[in-house]
Specification:
5-stranded mixed β-sheet, membrane, elongated, transport, alpha/beta, ATP_synth_F1_ATPase_gsu, single chain, 5 strands, hydrogen ion transport
């Protein structure tokens, strides 16, 4: 009887865990759909700004196209997660950074799960990450403020590192790629000085390119979390079925024992 009660207790725990994981899976699925729509729109914005930068390239200061080899150093921006239960999402990003980056360069860690994966003595800026796509723009504003504080008055490079569907990728966002040769073309007419307009578009491009990367990171994070939850739910389902079989077998043995006792008393 005590063994059967123990099994029933474990079955109740499995039911509770299944309910919690089911709710978390629904949340991840909803976020996945929401961020997917926003990411598509954000990619279109980045493409439009990239075209505008190409048209305005003649008005941009030469420093914005500086050779990365001549900058004071790259700032590495690592996108992690706020919440766990997303497989090796954060570990993959950290492993990639350790294998590719100069450890003396400044690093920005975005996402609380990354903060604990690096020693406190390592020089790094730790920033809160995004819970979902809605607070992603606020996170980008925090990142840009941290970059402005770090760069000071010197030229800098910016490398962003995210976990993609196929693995971890790095993107150079700053300095800008060299402008295409548009010999013979005319610069666009602008109300404001061309250099001022071009610099403003470059700043908008950096903001929206970062936002597009963060949205992709959030989508992949939620996809990996969804996979983890479905695996855990399948494990709970199989475990629950096995426990039910054990409980039924014990109950049958108890019934047989009771019948034998009744027959023996006659």
């Amino acid at each position: 009887m005590s063994q059967r009660r123990e099994i029933e207790g474990r079955l109740a725990l499995y039911d509770e865990l299944t309910g919690i994981l089911g709710a978390m899976r629904s949340f991840a699925l909803a976020e996945l759909r929401k961020v997917g729509k926003r990411e598509t729109a954000q990619q279109e914005i980045v493409a439009s700004l990239s075209d505008a930068l190409l048209d305005l390239s003649g008005g941009l200061p030469a420093a914005l196209y500086a050779d990365p080899g001549h900058t004071a150093g790259d700032i590495w921006l690592l996108f992690g997660s706020v919440r766990g239960f997303c497989g090796s999402f954060n570990e993959d990003v950290m492993r990639f950074w350790r294998g590719r980056a100069d450890q003396n360069n400044t690093v920005l860690l975005v996402g609380e799960r990354l903060h604990a994966m690096i020693a406190e003595t390592t020089p790094a800026q730790r920033l809160s990450g995004a819970e979902g796509s809605l607070d992603a723009p606020i996170v980008i504003e925090r990142i840009l403020a941290a970059i402005m504080a770090l760069r000071g008055s010197v030229e800098f490079g910016l490398m962003a590192c995210i976990r993609d569907e196929k693995g971890v990728l790095s993107h150079r966002l700053w300095p800008l790629p060299p402008p295409a040769d548009k010999t013979g073309s005319y610069p666009p007419l602008t109300y404001q000085p061309l250099g001022e307009v071009a610099t403003g578009v470059a700043e908008q491009y950096l903001f929206h390119a970062l936002l597009a990367l963060l949205l992709r990171s959030i989508r992949v994070e939620n996809h990996m979390r969804l996979m983890q939850m479905e695996t855990a739910l399948r494990h709970l389902e199989k475990g629950g079925e096995e426990l039910q079989r054990q409980r039924n077998r014990l109950r049958q043995e108890e019934i047989v024992e009771e019948i034998e006792l009744m027959v023996g008393r006659r």
